[in-house]
């Protein structure tokens, strides 16, 4: 009876009006469009809408239009990174059935960071195209390690054990990062600036670098969505419905790690986006991953773009890196989730 009631409860949550979901999706896309325009208008020097539209049309005749042209690749990159982190968080929470799962909390970001710092220190890496493969390998190894440690014991990979394993792993890897960077004064500034997490000074090369990984990761995640819906019922019921639980987890996790590694490589370890966005999306459109994953992409892009704009406003004429803003937004949200009584599973 308990299993049957669980199935019925989950199925009821999956059923939500398509019109409602579509309305929220269109609203989120409209918000992203507005934020992209504002992102190109706001900076150390504000520009008008006419100059923004002219710059998007390819003109850079005046100073203001040239300023907008410089901001366009930054805006596109922050949208891509926000989408990647939003999808990654949604998939990780679905794979682990852990409401605390997030690339930062599970230590995946830190693993990618350590790999990139090692690449900077010992292999002479200095550009995003060099960082990206190191970041993906570091993220993958860390994800496997955290899940293996969290799976030890009778109950397997419970949300609490995964969160603790991720926190402990992130702390240990942070120490290794310090051990690599501190003796190397020649790379300290480069490594420190990258670790804060930011999108300033980027070019279209950074956008074209992350875009293929974003597309592949999105396709893998969307393909895995029905399997993630089955996993929400529990492993035994998912297997009974014909799902290969292990394969579903591995494929889904591969998409999430690919997205997280690529985003970390081009923008640094930006935290909490993958934690906050899926929870907010579930409140609006439900838990069906076929909708949750694309909606997390759009709202993740909106959150990171808004954070980037806010960072420019707060510290004008300088700016706060976007990684600092997302931490300020995400930390209280994380505390609120931890304080909830039903934190053991989704």
UniProtKB/TrEMBL annotation:
GO terms for biological process: siderophore-iron import into cell. It comes from Brevibacterium antiquum. It holds the Pfam family FecCD. The keyword Cell membrane applies. Keywords: Cell membrane, Membrane, Transmembrane, Transmembrane helix, Transport. It comes from the Bacteria. The keyword Lipid biosynthesis does not apply. It is found in: Cell membrane. This is Iron complex transport system permease protein. GO terms for cellular component: plasma membrane. It is a multi-pass membrane protein. InterPro entries: ABC_BtuC-like, ABC_transptr_permease_BtuC. Belongs to the binding-protein-dependent transport system permease family. FecCD subfamily. GO terms for molecular function: transmembrane transporter activity. The chain crosses the membrane at residues 22-42, 72-92, 104-125, 131-150, 162-182, 202-223, 291-314, 320-338.
